[in-house]
Amino acid sequence: MTHSIPAIVILGQASLATARRIQQVYPAAQIHGLAGRVEGADCSYQEFGATLRDLYQHNTPIIALCAAGIVIRTLAPLLLEKGAEPAVLAVAEDGSAVVPLLGGLGGVNVMAREIAAALQVAAAITTSGELRFGTCLLNPPSGYALADLESGKRFVSDLLAGHSVRIEGAAPWLDQAQLPEDPQAQRSIHVGSAARQASANELLIYPRSVAVAISADVGDLPEAVRAALLHANIALPSLACLLAADTEMASMNLHEAALELGVPLRFVAAQSDLVALAAVAVSDAKIVTADNLAVAIAEQPLDVATIGRRRGRLAVIGLGPGAAELMVPAVKAELARCTDVLGYETYVRMAGPFRDEQVQHCTDNREEMQRARHAFRLAAEGRSVIVVSSGDPGVFAMAAAVLEALHESDDPAWHSVDLEILPGVSASLATAAQAGAPLGHDFCVMSLSDNLKPWSIIEKRLDLAAEADLALAFYNPISKARPWQLGRALEIVGQHRTAQTPVVLGRDIGRPGQTLRATTLGALTPDQVDMRTMVLIGSSTTCTFPRADGSSWVYTPRWYGEKPAS
Ligand code: SAH
């Protein structure tokens, strides 16, 4: 069962090491540390109770490294409310005990076992059905689906009360359970893919053993799939996946249908028709055709991951300036699910930690086109690939290189990849926010690097942007290979701005050892700037005033010319 990204909540510094070990199991999970008590957590909170209740109400699984009693008392007021019940676990701060508390149907026992395995202890499972029978009938393994939860609960309590049970159909996982089996029993567990009404003393479990081959030009696909299953007398929960020809990989119609039906979509080489396609994809299956679709019915649950392949994905992501709090949640989720990460080593490291099976391809900063093509080759194989940039991937970073590589390619497999660009907080915006609002009015963003554009163009743009009285943000302001360019740039800007014009220098913003400095154009010299610095130069209206902490605020007013009456 897949659960959403959990939150790891800690109260003291002593818990951080255990929290990091748990984070290895859920790399997208953030460690929330109590402000003032924990240094080095991914984010901090002020108030334990409010934080825990807020997470709970947002259906976020909670792993709290503290006494079970504290968690119970904190969440108690919410427990009578109907609604979300995420998994909630208490873990001893030294990692010696893992106690699942709430969220039995949210997979809390599964999580408890995963965490316990990572910490090399036993999970404190207390669910009677699960303990007595060695399995949770209500939470069958991934190849099986329970028909109805409410009748399932009644069924399990009957068994706990002493009733015996018969098993009809094949479910190897149940053979290992210690169920009170008796061939004469009144109660039965029926395992099979046929659509059927459960009788009074019956627990229905469907094996996910059926695949339906579909084609992109069928209208209302979800309805067509349901009709085909009905025609083949197959219960909907037995549907394990949809199948389609790899020539139709980019069809939104197919992907939307899979999404609506809640099953994966797998692609195989195109065949003469859908019956042939289904037969190639699922060997030893009975094939039934209905309404132009082909239904492949196997005896056992399908191992979907081995059928054909999935549509590959390529996400070009922005990490933001560095701090985990400034990374957008969509990027975190993407990092958690990817199979391959490509990028400049520093950024790949910043994006981690990754699980062992996630492959890291670190490259030199300059090999952008090679990296982009490598990413497409991997994604075209069906892998889920991330290309990392710092800040925003569309700002002097990998997104344009990736699109260039795709534009140059006529490989249909590359064009079929599910390509998405996920934004990040760019260095200019992160720096501006710390300084106040120097980019609060119109501004111009430039890279001072002349690696990929002639210096004459840079001079011309600088001149025009400065003349237009735009605030300026300089990326790549200087480097060993480009020592004099910044000085020349400042000369050009100086022709249009006074020496008092406010300037902000942000270095390693959002990273350890960050520095922020407000100065003026007249006082700015290139030796105050290096390649890890963001340079913001104000317009004629940008102003500064003292902050209570002794530094200063820098901002550019929203208006221009005369201040409007307020
Ligand atoms: N895509 C990135 C920019 C890459 S260009 C973004 O959107 O932020 C690299 C330049 O960005 C550096 O030379 C520096 O000028 C600036 N930069 C990147 N990260 C920075 C940070 N954390 N602090 C200050 N400047 C940074």
UniProtKB/TrEMBL annotation:
Residues 314-524 form the Tetrapyrrole methylase domain. This is Precorrin-3B C(17)-methyltransferase. Keywords: Cobalamin biosynthesis, Methyltransferase, S-adenosyl-L-methionine, Transferase. Residues 51-129 form the Cobalamin synthesis G N-terminal domain. The keyword Magnesium does not apply. Its EC number is 2.1.1.131. The keyword Transferase applies. Gene3D superfamilies: 3.40.50.11220, Cobalt-precorrin-4 Transmethylase, Domain 1, Methyltransferase, Cobalt-precorrin-4 Transmethylase, Domain 2. SUPFAM superfamilies: CbiG N-terminal domain-like, Tetrapyrrole methylase. NCBIfam families: cobJ_cbiH (TIGR01466). One of its GO terms (molecular function) is precorrin-3B C17-methyltransferase activity. GO terms for biological process: methylation. The gene is cobJ. CDD domains: Precorrin_3B_C17_MT (cd11646). Pathway: Cofactor biosynthesis; adenosylcobalamin biosynthesis. It is an enzyme of class 2 (transferase). InterPro entries: 4pyrrol_Mease, 4pyrrol_Methylase_sf, 4pyrrole_Mease_sub1, 4pyrrole_Mease_sub2, CbiG_N, Cbl_synth_CobJ/CibH_dom, GbiG_N_sf, Precorrin_MeTrfase.
